[in-house]
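Justification of resources, computational component.

The compute hours requested in this renewal are based largely on the per-chain cost of generating structure records like the one below. Each record pairs the submitted sequence with a full structure-token output. That output is archived, and it is also reused by downstream analysis tasks.
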Amino acid sequence: MADTTLGSGIDAAADRVASLFARIQDALAGWRTAILAGAGETSGPAELDDRVGALVLPSLEEDDPLLVGAGFIAAPEFAGGSELHFSWWLGPLEDNPVLGATTGPTKLDLAARSYSDYLRDFRSLEWYRVPQSTHRTHITGPYVDHLCACDYIVTVTSPVERDERMIGVVGVDVYVKRLERELLPAMLRAGGPLALVNESGRVMVSTDPAVVVGTVLDAATAAVPCPGTPFLLVPTT
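The structure output for this chain reads:
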């Protein structure tokens, strides 16, 4: 139970966090199942792109979409090549120095990104490495996405495994400012300043102006778990 000095509103805020990320987890689970079901039918990158696009584009085409990116990053052996393959789409983007402003979903084109060479060693990156080693869904961030959004995001990735081997990860990107829109109203009703932190203690959303996104906090004994997630709501005073 929550610290009574903050009132029962902190429990409601924790439930709101849980509900939002359950929605994301449910989407990933459905996409993962569909990708595995069609794994034997996928003969190359183009066919894989068609299959994944049909799964993720409806979420990116919603009015006021929650997601700013979604797709599947295939292991080289699954995509039929020698390098990773991104079946990844970006939702409508605000004006940024990489892509400008877009009004609808666009497919990520790594060939057009001269600064994306670091992705060649993608197995070492947190969003791939942790799901591969833990066999569990993982949240990376918050961090500044220099590849596409040029803003703070969180990335949620889930391993897609066949015959006890990971063939890639399915995932989504969400703007931190979008998370704030979803979560701040419930957090503000808790009765005191709060920060939502990930499993490393890094702040994702905060109602305390002195505690900014990206700060690392020690989880206090009064921290409240958000059910079904690795997140905590931490009182900041």
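Residues 9-37 form the longest helix (29 residues). The mean pLDDT is 84.
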